[in-house]
Amino acid sequence: MAKPREFPIKESAQELKSLRKKQSSYRFEKRLIWLESILTKRFKTRKQLAEYLNISPRTQERWTLQYIRSGIEGLLSDEPKNLKSRIITQEIHNGLEQRVNSDTEPFLGYWDAQAWVFQEYGVDVKYHLLRHYLIQHFKTKLKSPRKSHYKKDEEAEKAFLKTP
């Protein structure tokens, strides 16, 4: 088994304790307990520390890398990790944007969007991935009210309104 990565901890034990008391979430408090335990060498092995905190050794590795890269602020941040999609390219994104905002040819559902992407770009995107992508980037809903139906005949509407 490999030796755990050694890294310098810039904060003192007192600073970590005071930061720990200020935390409102146990998630972040657990990270500070982890950092404080490493600093004070409370446990002989990282495995014992992981068992004490009820986390996996891989979680400790991720926290270590996060702390090394961005310090205590990065360790205690709750920023989402928005990664660029490798499947949906910028070209597909632009096409989806035009089609989602179209008044004449909107998608009839997520399955229609999936079929359209395959037909236009030859990329087979899984239904749930495309659904999540459309919701996240274009704020789509499964059923969204429209001002009027895209197949509506204007003359038929006028004729309907004239009849008593």
Q: Could you characterize what this model shows?
A:
The chain is mostly helical. Among the domains are: 13-75, no CATH class; 90-138, no CATH class. The chain is built from eight helices and no strands. Helix 1 (13-22) runs antiparallel to helix 2 (26-40). It is elongated.
Estimate the global geometry from the Cα principal axes: elongated
Beta content: under 5%
Q: Roughly what is the average pLDDT, rounded to an integer? A: 87
Task: Give me the count of strands.
Answer: 0
Distance linking N and C termini = 85 Å
Largest sheet: none
If you compute it from the alpha carbons, what radius of gyration comes out, rounded to the nearest whole angstrom? 27 Å
N-to-C order of helices and strands? HHHHHHHH
Uncertain segments are none
Estimate the helix proportion, in percent.
55-70%
Number of separate helices: 8
Counting helices, strands and paired strands, the structural category is mainly alpha
